[in-house]
Amino acid sequence: MSQLQRKILFLTPFYFKDLPNAKELNKYLFKHIKAWKKAEPKGEVKTNSGFGWHSPTDMNQKKEYDPLTSELFKMAEECNKDYGVAPKLGLGNMWANVSPTYSYNKTHTHPNSLWSGVYYVKVPKNSGKLFLEDPRPGPNTYMPRRLTIFQNNYGEYVLTHLLKVE
């Protein structure tokens, strides 16, 4: 009798990194996002719920956010290289969210996107968690959502869909 074998196919890549200049960048971005929110207090209603503010989606076209956009393109190029994708992708849109206590963003997708990302400028103590779902249409149909991280029989850690940002 042959032994059961296992191969992992159809993975969804998840990339992350710490930026070397994050402290300075975050201070700079916080100042500009705060001013933007003050200038446009209503923002837009998209996936934000509770008392959250969602900026217009043209953040990537505003010069004051070039330092962040530049970092995002560097990271996207690293992802492309690792994933075997031709370089120089475009950036369709970008926005800022300000989510005070009891605010959150509803589960949503970013259609027609190879990469989607999130960058936290400020995360107060006891903030909520980032909730990620496998973006492929089939996996959540065949496999129910998991609520915790666990180690499977192969010694691999299975990602929870709930990630704490620290």
Give an overview of the whole structure.
The protein has 166 residues and is of the alpha+beta class. The chain is built from 3 helices and 8 strands; from the N terminus they run αββαβββαβββ. The longest helix has 18 residues. The N and C termini lie far apart (48 Å). The C terminus is likely disordered.
The number of domains is 2
The geometry reads as globular
What is the overall pLDDT average? 82
**N-C termini distance:** 48 Å
H and E order: HEEHEEEHEEE
Q: Can you count the beta strands? A: 8
Structural class based on helices, strands and sheet pairing: alpha+beta
Alpha plus pi helix count: 3
> What's the main sheet like?
2 strands, antiparallel
Q: Helix coverage percent of residues? A: 10-25%
Fraction of residues in β-strands: 5-15%
Q: Evaluate the radius of gyration.
A: 18 Å
Uncertain stretches: 159-166
